[in-house]
Inverse folding.
């Protein structure tokens, strides 16, 4: 990562973002060797046997991260999954899959989601919601607001119009998997009850529980969740603490 790195829990790192941050698309690197491709395919077939609904779509991986811009290229999801499952592939593939991660801030507080026990990655941990890999949505471009809106709809059953304001905060790189979350504060006038109801009716199964963090309980929640709270959520909650209500 470029810029001033901020160390977080679990060995994760953050770069604080400018309000005008954009994503730039560059060319992909040369394909990996045949033995690496065979390993990727073996991991993919094993995962598909356990989770037939897995889809090998195109995802975006970061090559350079700066406060004002992220530059990267498109690749296959199966390569990211293989890198997670086989740590020895991390140096060979060197993927830094890019994701969006928003902390939904409503009038009563901020919303966290607990990742389902069936999640491929970080099962049972609490994170800011919505979140998800940046995917190819048909136009070969990366529109961060469109990506956030899509995750909001898929995970919480809410339309993008529910968001009244968006504030970029940080690019947070996971240790190990090297996933990079582009983290945002998302402000909505909807109540937590409305959000909770929409997630139950129309959201997917990404989260098995939602939790409202009230401003005067933030320190208690940080202590209670401890290592179960993802560092990306922690840095967003701290930014929310200083941002106040809107």
């Amino acid at each position: 990562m470029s810029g001033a790195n901020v160390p977080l829990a679990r060995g994760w790192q953050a770069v604080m973002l400018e309000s005008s941050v954009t994503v730039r698309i560059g060319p992909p690197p040369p394909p990996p060797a045949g033995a690496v491709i065979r390993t990727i395919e073996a991991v993919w077939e094993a995962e598909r046997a356990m989770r037939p609904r897995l889809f090998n779509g195109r995802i975006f991986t970061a090559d350079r991260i700066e406060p004002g811009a992220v530059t990267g290229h498109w690749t296959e999801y199966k390569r990211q999954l293989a890198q997670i499952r086989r740590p020895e592939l991390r140096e060979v593939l060197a993927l830094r899959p890019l994701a969006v991660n928003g902390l939904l801030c409503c009038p009563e507080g901020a919303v966290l989601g607990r990742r389902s026990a069936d999640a491929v990655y970080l099962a049972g941990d609490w994170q800011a919601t919505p979140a998800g890999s940046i995917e190819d949505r048909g136009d070969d471009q990366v529109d961060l607001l469109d990506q956030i809106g899509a995750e909001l709809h898929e995970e919480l059953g809410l339309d993008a119009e529910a968001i009244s304001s968006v504030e970029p905060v940080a690019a947070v790189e996971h240790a190990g998997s090297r996933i990079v979350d582009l983290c945002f504060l998302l402000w909505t006038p909807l109540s937590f009850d409305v959000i909770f109801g929409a997630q139950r009716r129309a959201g997917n199964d990404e989260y098995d529980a939602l939790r409202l963090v009230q401003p005067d309980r933030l320190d208690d929640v940080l202590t209670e969740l401890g290592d179960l709270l993802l560092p990306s959520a922690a840095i967003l909650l701290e930014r929310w603490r200083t941002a106040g209500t809107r």
Remarks:
- The radius of gyration is 18 Å.
- The chain has a mean pLDDT of 94.
- The longest helix spans residues 34-50.
